Amino acid sequence: MRKIFIAPSLLGADPLNLTADIERMKNNFDWLHLDIMDAHFVRNLSFGPSFARALRKNYPDAFIDTHLMTDNLETVLPLFIDAGVSLISVHAETESHLLHAVLSQIKNAGIKTGIALCPPTPVTMIESVLNLADLVLVMSVTPGFGGQKFIESSLGKVRELVSIRAVKNYNYLIEIDGGINENNITRVVLAGCDAIVMGSAVFRNNDPALWLEGIRAKIKEGSEDCDRTR
Ligand code: DX5
Ligand code: ZN
Question: Are 156 and 22 in contact, with CB atoms under 8 Å apart?
């Protein structure tokens, strides 16, 4: 059975009780998803590098899955590399002509690389750099805000990435981000996602740890079905 990573998005947590919200999950997660927004690439602002540093300091063993929704990577990228995060995804739509160099910069710093795609962006746009990716993040909502409705057509992109990976013998993980909850998680797993970001669905719960246990069971069912159909 393939391993599927659950990545709660801290954007969905209570900003005044972040550590309490992390503790409420009782380690029933794999990664912490950190959304970085610059009010330019997206229409919102979120966490900065000092927050990422504090997160690393308080959770030295956590896999910090960082999703940069920013322009100006020349300035922003070193700040998050220095903060000690585990993986950095950059959007294909920002400075796309520099994507090869940017991914190499992340890799050379010893950090895992991710390429993120907004809903309208086709996979063809990143085919030439997929060999440099440890992860491809498929956005299933317009980036910028939690709590939006899942865009169903994102699953087609996930299937396309699964088939390119098999044909070309690549190793990237496929992550999906936005609008995922207990009702669509099985479809997401069946499409072939390896990492699943969830924000509002996790933290709106009174008992996120228990809810995540239920999600884990649904994921197990879905991935067993997936293995059977392969
Ligand atoms: C949106 C962010 C997501 C967001 C997901 O731009 O990238 O990570 O927090 O939140 P939900 O699960 O509420 O859609
Ligand atoms: Zn995200």
Answer: no
